[in-house]
Amino acid sequence: MAEAERIIGTPDTPGAGTGPEQRDVHGTDGTDRADGAGLADAAADADAPAVRPRRRRVAVLFAVAAFAYALDLVSKLLVVAKLEHHRPIEIVGDWLKFEAIRNAGAAFGFGEAFTVIFTVIAAAVIVVIARLARKLYSLPWAIALGLLLGGALGNLTDRIFRSPGVFEGAVVDFIAPKHFAVFNLADSAIVCGGILIVLLSFRGLDPDGTVHKD
Rounded distance, CA 196 to CA 200, Å? Predict the structure, then answer.
């Protein structure tokens, strides 16, 4: 009997019936908390490789947006300073000219009576892109969203800071192809970004990098 109690252990015996595995998990010396911290560290290490590509894609998005925005801003400053109230400059004969105009409507001169609405839409587009950036793992999507963001910021800057007033400002357009509406570099960035998004959607590529087939 004594031999059986020695092997099995009794409730009054300290540490009885507990193997090394139980002491590692449920011990009172803090090893359970250490094991929990170890599991958390392991999970963080597993997530780290996934976070780095997302940060790189987000960096590409904002770099493309900054480049598109800077080009649009500089071009409009030059147009206002050098071209506005002057004769158009012929680039390719009558087929392509630089002609400064003020556009109160949407891209390519549509909807001039809804300037405030287009301003709100541009602001909403920027918010949506910022939210999408949190789950962005696709490089093509980063480029497309960067073009959209840069173009939206370019035209939104005009809406806010140019006359006739805040949120009602007229956008500076200057690229005038023959038999087509006059537009600017921000419009071009928006159109290129939109076309790229349509192509990516047809190919089944999502912003998070996954590919689905219908």
Answer: 6
Cα dihedral 158, 163, 166, 168, rounded to 10, equals: -80
* Cis preceding-peptide flag for 53 (omega within 30 of 0): no
19-71, pLDDT tens digit by residue? 444 444 444 444 444 454 554 454 445 455 557 788 999 999 999 999 999 99
Question: What is the phi/psi pair of residue 104, to 5°?
Answer: -90, -5
Q: Residues 24, 173, 206, 208: which is the catalytic one?
A: 173
Please give the average per-residue pLDDT across 76-94, as a whole number: 93
Q: Is 214 a catalytic residue?
A: no
- DSSP-assigned beta bridge partners for residue 89: 98
Catalytic residue among 32, 45, 187, 208: 187
Asked about 173 being catalytic, the answer comes back as: yes
SS3 10: coil
pTM for this entry: 0.72
Which segments of the chain does DSSP mark as H helices, in order? 2-8, 20-26, 31-78, 115-132, 139-161, 185-202
Q: Which residues pair with 196 in a beta bridge?
A: none
**Residue 126 in this model has a pLDDT that exceeds 50:** yes
Answer whether residue 129 shows pLDDT above 50. Answer: yes
